[in-house]
Specification:
The complex is a heterodimer of chains A (about 400) and B (about 240). Chain A has helices spanning about 15-25, 60-75, 95-110, 120-125, 145-160, 210-215, 280-290, 330-335, 350-365, 380-385; strands at about 5-10, 30, 50, 80, 85-90, 115, 135-140, 140-145, 160-165, 165-175, 180-185, 190-195, 200-205, 220-230, 240-245, 250-255, 260-265, 300-310, 325-330, 340-345. With about 400 residues, chain A is of the alpha+beta class. Chain A folds into two domains: about 5-40 and about 145-220 and about 320-385, FAD/NAD(P)-binding domain, CATH 3.50.50; about 50-145 and about 225-310, D-Amino Acid Oxidase, Chain A, domain 2. In chain A, helix 1 (about 15-25) packs parallel to helix 5 (about 145-160) and helix 1 (about 15-25) packs across helix 9 (about 350-365). The two termini of chain A are about 25 Å apart. Chain B is built from seven helices and nine strands. In chain B, a hairpin with a 2-residue loop joins strand 3 and strand 4. In chain B, helix 4 (about 175-185) crosses helix 7. Classes of the chains: A alpha+beta (about 400), B alpha+beta (about 240). The interface between A and B is large, with 58 and 56 residues.
Amino acid sequence: MSKPHAIIIGAGFTGTATAHDLALRGFDVTVIERGDLCNGTSGRTHGLLHSGGRYAVKDQESAIECIDENNILRKIVPQVIEPNGGLFIALNESDLQYGEAFIEGCEACHIPLEELKPGEALRLEPNINPKLLTAFLIPDGTFDPLRLALSFAATAKKNGAKFRTYTEVKSLIVDGKGNVVGVNVMDRRLNKSQEWRADIVVNATGAWAGEITEMAGAHVPVKPTPGVMVAYEQRFIQRAINRLNKPGDGDIVLPQRRMVVVGTTSFEIDNLDYVPVLENHAKLMLERGAELIPAIANAKMRGKYMATRPLIGAGEGRSAARTFKCYDHKETDNVDGLVTITGGKATTLRAMAEKTADVVCSKLGIKAACMTKEVPLISYRRYYTMPN
Amino acid sequence: MSETKWNIILKIYRQKENEAPHYSEYKMEVDPDEYVLDAVERVWAFMDRSLCFRHACHHSTCGACGMRVNGVEKLTCITYIRDVTQDGATLKVEPLRNFPVISDLAVDMGSLYCRMDSVGARPVLPVTEAEIENPSNKWNPEDAKYIRLSDCIECGLCISACPSAATSSGYLGPAVLAGAQANGLKHDPALLELVDSEDGVWRCHSAFECTAVCPSFVDPARRIMNLRTQIVSERLSRLFRRKS
């Protein structure tokens, strides 16, 4: 029997991770991406390898996903991770009060934490706000966004997956019964239309998921929610520094190469393809970042940018759950042949791929176990050096 | 951002497979405090969906958006429009040199990635090896356990700017030799034959263009000079080892 053919639309985090998972499970995989890898949300991710601490109080399902996946990614792809941990620091009474719920939440979600006295925290991170009242050490990390996706893509490619970049999906091919059987694409390198057929089409377009499902008359409740980040030209810290309080604007500062990056905000938009970086949001990052690390106030700005989160489910902005969901459109809209994976966050990309591949396998009646928890990823550089 | 708006002409190099290269011009209103990449992305979003270019992180950590801006290699995500043109002027954007063009501004950097792997250039390394000259980052021995992403973002600007790279497609090139230098011949003696060769350090003619365009503080030219010193010292010590 010939291999089942899966088309994955989108080569961001979920698309590349799903390609890796399905290739390991014996699928013939074609990834279609309108630009190069990670040109949308994934490439512009803040880069925090979440310990789950951020969600341990209000969104424990996400928190548990984060700590589990954090441990797996450290093992399978250490070549793109700064694994140095993180601090949650309290600067006022409200932060201290939140600390009690934080300890309980982390314990409930098996996130290891250690409380540090202000002096101990300052010894580890001399540039954090010296007025801190307490600090918790947790296993956060940071990663290079593009190279994380490239590592999954390279390994998928080694196992036979094909990547068709600069190729934009124009419409879905639908059979007489309204089911999806392939995609019509425009190859932007050749300015030529092409038609690709598959046993299953996976919509891994994140914030853009609604634009793809609409082509088949299906629906996903995804709310594109951008946030602004600002990078500064000095590496003040070795760890992720988080404000010990409920998630808010500009409450995470990350080290990355010779920079620190402050993020983020949360707003709504109409046009997904170009989102301006709002100046008042960038200014807020400077103010909020300097509360955590005072030297940021005088640091040289390196770059300001934005990324659009694909939020799903109930709640607005910050209160929306950060977990992910895989939709089988046979169940949601009576459209067979199309599966959408969206929501979630970079840290949970592997788990999102596992869930999607499980749904795909069960739809096609294929029995194949997920292997991605164990298989180490190859050098991200191999993505560019292997023939397609 | 400022309240000021500039009207510029973005003149972009275009090349599709089996087509002759040409330039397309786009009249645009821009904020001088935007980045060049913002203007290129807006051309794609609102004016011409066929335009191909690479970009990912938009804050100089991924190295995808290297282009030639008015003839000079730039990481376009951190290059202010204000710094490279003026109101009413034309801003020319072209793909990097010394790499095959995939389409328009996107080039195939496979050769660079392949060579980075061949010299074992480390994508992450202990922070204590990062050579940051900054008084607030004095290292304690225990800091060696902290790992960070290396400075080189493999953007290819140095390869594009290098006059020697233009003369030989086999030349390892500045980023790759810098990666070898950071590993060190003492640490990886197998590198010696690879870098002590016609297409290794001796192809470099000390133009220092690589260091001039490097957006990521790697200083490849200094590293190539240091690698030459390492090679001479390694050759001499091998000579004496053989005699004794």
